[in-house]
Amino acid sequence: MQAAALLWHVSVLVPAEQRGLALGLVxxxxxxxxxxxxxxxxxxxxxxxxxxxxxxxxAGSALIASALAWLTLTGLSIVWPLYALAALAAAVGAFDxxxxxxxxxxxxxxxxxxxx
Length: 116
Prior knowledge:
This protein is an all-alpha fold. It contains four helices and no strands. It is elongated and about 60 Å long.
């Protein structure tokens, strides 16, 4: 829902003739942190406590969502803060997704080992 709201907000702020470029730039801004942090995030997830890491990534996601809401409510008229929030959300997601997948795999493995 947050990604859809971000795209809608960008499309409202830019002129109609620049809308395609502006929305495509959102995709680029969201892809760049994933490419940059993908190798690092796997190492971090393996080295740290996954639950604690997920706590921080979820808190970061909540802060980003709050910032997006605040910018919307204050009547944002420029688009670059939305690009910054999109990049930040993608960077947080680059750490959250591997932690979540590794934690689920560990939980499933633990429950299978304990089954009678």
